[in-house]
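User: hey, got a sec? need GTP-binding protein folded
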Amino acid sequence: MTKVDIISGFLGAGKTTFIKQLIEQVFTGEKLVLIENEFGEIGIDGGFLKDAGIEITEMNSGCICCTLVGDFSKALQKVLEEYKPDRVLIEPSGVGKLSDIVKAIEDVKKDAEIEISGRITVVDGKKAVLYLKNFGEFFEDQVKHASTIVISRTQMMSGEKIEECVHILREENAEAAIISTPWDELSGEAVCRALDHGAEIEEFLQNHSEHEGECGCGHHHEHEGECGCGHHHHGHHHHHADEIFTSWGKETAHKYTDEELDFLLKALSETEGYGTILRSKGIIPMADGTWKQFDLVPEEYEVREGKADYTGRVCVIGTDLKEEELLKLFHI
Ligand SMILES: Nc1nc2c(ncn2[C@@H]2O[C@H](COP(=O)(O)OP(=O)(O)OP(=O)(O)O)[C@@H](O)[C@H]2O)c(=O)[nH]1
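Assistant: Yep! Here you go:
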């Protein structure tokens, strides 16, 4: 029996960071495969995971939902046959709906020896209120269907803010284990306990989601009818991720100075001049011959030394992106 764990969460929530922690502290010694589904994002973090001997399957062609469920099922079946892993970790795109992934896995379960062991959702504690308000359709689905919720960035939050965050998550999901301890203080055993608690309520969640009456397939339905996912709809207003979010990605050979990099990261994280920027990542060549990787979410960014790649690459995800302005900003 292969265990399947889903690690969902909105753009930049900290899914990859948490997966690294799980691999180092919780799933040690297990034969693991990771299936990643990026929404036009750059899979920059592959290095660490490959070094740790983890097989990685990337699905970059869009967001897993109705239309991609078939592809996803095939990818899952393929890794099961090819690697016979103890555990498969699935990292859906930040704009994917957890309920869609669960349905896709349920489909595969009919002909494979697998069981869902955990539905983990990572929530950026500092942005939960904002994202619930602005992108509720996606954010809420991820929170509601989780068996374990992990709040990231709590080391930067006051006790009061953490409590407020837990409170709004509880309103969406009364059952899930909620991890609010900062990750650097969090032991493998504590994560295990939370995941065990999550496993206990897994059955409850499965029954619960069956009666929900939504297709969760992300389509926009104005009329009653079949959307192709086999369910019947009554005028729900569902959206595909690509109806709401835009992903802009470019290669760049420009060599950036520290000042240019600083300027563009501040511009993207602190101003509205380029649209509503929710996430940006890149690996770029610098004027001094080094390479830098950057990671950006609203109001925050991080720059690290990177390894040289065959070309520089950047991506920006958000709503109402001003693409012409982005080209200028990145000197492309
Ligand atoms: N300080 C701190 N930084 C965090 C934490 N979680 C995530 N980050 C940072 O936030 C950024 C995004 O983290 P990722 O783990 O790449 O997030 P993700 O959810 O995989 O992002 P996507 O690529 O959009 O799917 C990185 O720069 C992380 O270092 C946290 O708990 N504390």
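Quick note: Residues 211-235 have pLDDT under 50 and may be disordered. Let me know if you need anything else on GTP-binding protein.
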